[in-house]
C-alpha cells in the first residue's frame, strides 16, 4: 500500500480532496489488483483525509481481497448504477469533495460528466503527471519482475532461432515461440509477436504471414512477455545463411547505433541526446532516411509507457527508469534490421535487462 | 462513403456544424480505413456544409488512400502538434464550428479540453447514440463478412474437436486452432481463444493452461475470428468419452435454452424477453443459480458492441441486428456448458450465422 500513501501525501501537499483512478494499469499499480472490467466501473478512490476504497464488479470482490487489498472493497452489481454506488461509498467517508484528481488522458468525457453530476460543484484536476512520475521510477521489486520478463523474452528469441528452417513459414515459427512461452508460465505476450522474413523485415510494423523462409533471408523477431504484470520487449534480427556485404553493413550499423546510445545512459543524460547519438551513427553510415521512428519508449506495467525517447524530449534520465533502445534501418532493397534492448538506469550507468547476444547470429541452412 | 453521407444528413437535420470521430472502430466504420494509431491522433471530421477529411499520421496516408478514401487526407508528423494540424485543416473549410458532435463515451477529457481550446466557444454534444444506431443495423455487405467470419469460427471448432486426445493440454489444442485459422487467412482472433476442460469449464472466464485432457471431461471452446474487419464469436462444449447422466442433463438444458431464445427472434421482440426465455428454461430445470451472465451482446466490427441482450434491456429487435445468444450453466461439481451462436434478425425471423452442430458431440477416447 506504499503507492496509496504516496498519492495520499500528494493530495495533502496539493490540497486536493481525493483522487479517482480508473485505468486498469494504474489501478494495478496503486492497489495490486489486476482486473479488466471492460465497460464496467473499476476504480480506486484515495482521500486526503479518509480511508481509500476500490470499487469493482461484485463478482470480482473475492479476487480483490485475494490480491492483498486490505481497505474497503465496494462491489456493484449489473442491476445497479455503479456510479451511484460510488457516490454512496464516497459520501460515507464524511469528507468534503471540492477538488478531485482524475486521469484526464484516459477518463472519458461521459464519465467526467457523470462525476460532475454526482460530486456537484467539485472541480477536477489532472493526476496524470503524478502517476507518470511515480511509475517512471521502478522499485527493486518491480525491477525483479522486469528482469524475469526480459529473461523469458531472451528465451523466446532462442526458441525462434532454433525453429528457423528453409520452407517454414513466419507463422509456424511464431506459434512455436508463443506455445513455449505459455508453457513456461508467461501470463501472455506483451503484444502481437512479430516474425518477419526477407523483404518483410523492411516494414517497421509488418504482419507475420505465410511467407516461407529462404536462404539469404534476414529474420526479425520483435516480441515481449508479461511476467507478474510487467512487460518485456525485445527485437533481434538474425541471418539465415551467409549475409551479403550490404546486409552485414546495415546490421553492424544498427548494432553500433544501439550500443552507442546504451553506453551513454546514466543519470542526467537527456532522452533527446540518446536518440541523437544513435541517429547520428546511422546517418553517418548513409542510412539516415531509413531510420523512421523514435529510439525507444518507457516500459513497465504497460508495454509503451511514459517517457518517450525521442529527439524532442529533453527529459533527464534518473536512476530506476526503464525503457527500450531500439534503432532500426529499413531498406526496401537490402534488408530491414532492428535491435532492441530493455534497459534500466542505475546510479552510475545502465543495466541491460535483455541479454540475447547481439553479434550477428548466422543460422546454417 | 454512404456512412459519411448518413452522418452529414444527421448533422443537417440536427443543425450540428461538424462531427469528429476518433475511435478506430468507428473511423473504420465510416471511412473504411482501419488503423490503430495508439496515442497518435486519428480521426474523421465530417461537416454539415463542407467536405470531410481524415487526419492520421503522415506515414499512414498511403494506406488511407489505398483503403478507398477519396476526400482529403490530412497527415501529421511526430514533430508537429497534430491538434494544430487538425485546427488548420478544419479552418480551411471556411465554415463556422459552433457545435461539434463527439463520441463522449470514448473521447478523453484531455482531448476534449484540447478541442475546447482550438474551437473556442464551440459546444460539444454526443454522437454516440447516432453511431450506435447506425452500427446496430448491418448492411448486406456487412452481413456477408459476418457470415464468412462465422464460417471460419465453425471450422475452428471442427479443428479443436479433431485435436482432442487423452493427455493433450488445453494450450496445445488452442495453439493448433489458432495456427490453422491464421493459415486460412483470418486477420486475427476476435479475442483470446478459450479451451477449457473438465472442472475448468465451470468458470465463465477461465484461462487455458497446462491441464491435460482426461476421459470424462467436457471441453469448452469459446473463440472468434476477424474477417475483413468483422468478428465472429462461437462457443461449443463437447464431451470426451461417454458423459454422465447429470452432464447430459446440463447439456440438454443449455441447448434447449439457447434454441428457445433463437426461435423467438424476429423484428419487434424485446431483448429482455429473449434473456428471460432462455433463463426460464434453465431455472425450471433447477440450474438458475448457475447461469450468471447476460444472454448475449451485439457483434460486428467490435466483438462486444451495442446492444446488450440483458434482462433489463427493453429494446425491440430490428431487421439487420446481429448479436450472440449464449446461455450457460456453470456447475462446479458436474460441469460447465455454454452454447453460443451468432444470429441476424431477418424480416420475419432469424438467420443463424454459426452452423457447427449443437447435438452433443461425443469424442471417442
Structure report:
The structure is a homodimer of 365-residue chains. Chain A has 365 residues and is α+β, with helices and mostly antiparallel strands. Chain A is 35% helix and 22% strand. Chain A folds into 2 domains: 2-136, 3-Layer(aba) Sandwich (Creatine Amidinohydrolase, Chain A, domain 1); 140-363, Alpha-Beta Complex (Creatine Amidinohydrolase), CATH 3.90.230.10. The first copy, chain A, has helices spanning 2-13, 24-31, 61-66, 82-92, 109-118, 128-136, 140-163, 170-183, 245-264, 271-284, and strands at residues 18-21, 43-47, 53-57, 72-76, 99-102, 123-126, 188-189, 194-197, 218-223, 225-227, 230-231, 234-240, 296-298, 305-309, 322-325, 328-330, 336-338, 341-345, 350-352, 362-363. Chain A has a 6-stranded mixed sheet. In chain A, strands 8-9-12-20 form a 4-stranded mixed sheet, with helices on one face. Chain A has a 3-stranded antiparallel sheet with strand order 7-10-11. In chain A, helix 7 packs across helix 8 and helix 9 runs antiparallel to helix 10 (271-284). The relative contact order of chain A is 0.11. Chains A and B meet through helix 5 and helix 8 of A and helix 5 and helix 8 of B.
Amino acid at each position: 500500500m506504499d503507492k496509496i500513501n504516496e498519492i495520499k501525501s500528494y493530495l495533502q501537499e496539493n490540497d486536493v480532496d481525493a483522487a479517482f483512478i480508473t485505468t486498469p494499469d494504474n489501478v494495478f499499480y496503486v492497489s495490486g489488483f489486476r482486473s479488466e472490467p471492460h465497460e464496467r466501473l473499476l476504480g480506486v478512490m484515495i482521500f486526503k483525509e479518509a480511508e481509500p476504497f476500490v470499487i469493482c464488479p461484485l463478482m470480482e470482490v473475492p479476487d480483490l481481497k485475494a490480491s492483498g487489498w486490505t481497505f474497503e472493497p465496494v462491489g456493484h452489481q449489473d442491476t445497479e448504477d455503479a456510479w451511484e454506488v460510488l457516490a454512496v461509498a464516497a459520501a460515507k467517508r464524511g469528507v468534503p469533495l471540492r477538488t478531485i484528481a482524475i486521469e484526464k488522458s484516459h477518463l472519458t468525457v461521459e464519465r467526467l460528466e457523470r462525476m460532475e453530476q454526482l460530486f456537484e460543484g467539485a472541480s477536477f484536476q489532472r493526476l496524470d503527471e503524478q502517476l507518470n512520475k511515480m511509475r517512471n521510477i521502478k522499485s527493486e521489486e518491480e525491477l525483479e519482475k522486469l528482469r524475469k520478463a526480459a529473461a523469458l523474452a531472451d528465451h523466446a528469441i532462442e526458441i525462434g532461432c532454433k525453429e528457423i528452417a528453409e520452407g517454414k513459414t513466419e507463422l509456424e515459427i511464431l506459434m512455436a515461440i508463443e506455445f513455449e512461452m505459455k508453457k513456461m508460465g508467461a501470463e501472455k505476450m506483451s503484444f502481437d509477436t512479430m516474425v518477419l522474413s526477407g523483404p518483410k523485415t523492411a516494414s517497421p510494423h509488418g504482419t507475420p504471414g505465410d511467407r516461407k523462409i529462404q536462404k539469404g533471408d534476414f529474420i526479425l523477431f520483435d516480441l515481449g512477455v508479461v511476467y507478474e504484470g510487467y512487460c518485456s520487449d525485445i527485437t533481434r534480427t538474425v541471418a539465415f545463411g551467409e549475409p551479403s556485404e550490404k546486409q552485414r553493413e546495415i546490421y553492424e550499423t544498427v548494432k553500433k547505433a544501439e550500443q552507442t546510445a546504451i553506453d551513454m545512459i546514466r543519470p542526467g543524460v537527456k532522452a533527446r541526446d540518446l536518440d541523437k547519438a544513435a541517429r547520428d551513427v546511422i546517418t553517418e553510415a548513409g542510412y539516415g532516411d531509413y531510420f523512421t521512428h523514435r529510439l525507444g519508449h518507457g516500459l513497465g506495467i504497460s508495454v509503451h509507457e511514459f517517457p518517450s525517447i525521442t529527439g524532442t524530449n529533453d527529459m533527464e534520465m534518473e536512476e530506476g527508469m526503464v525503457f527500450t533502445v531500439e534503432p532500426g534501418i529499413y531498406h526496401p532493397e537490402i534488408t530491414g534490421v532492428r535491435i532492441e534492448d530493455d534497459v534500466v538506469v542505475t546510479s552510475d550507468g545502465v543495466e541491460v535487462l535483455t541479454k540475447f547476444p547481439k553479434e550477428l547470429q548466422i543460422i546454417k541452412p
